[in-house]
Amino acid sequence: MDLNEVIFIDKSGVRLLRMLAREGVQFTGSGIYTRHIIEQLNIVRKSGLSNLFSGLFAGFFLILLVVLICAPAA
Known about the structure:
Largest sheet: none
Shape: rod-shaped
Number of domains: 1
Helix content: 55-70%
């Protein structure tokens, strides 16, 4: 998403951009303020991916634990 002509982003705009970043949208911008916001959005995107992987790992571990507990002793 091209934000080169943007000079100000209010709180609701940042929330919208944050949601878009979590969906994988990439941003470009040339102003100091806009680049700062984009940098923050990139952090959100990365943390969103790490949360996804952490959740998947936790789910896998939980399933493995349940299978081990419920498996009959040989």
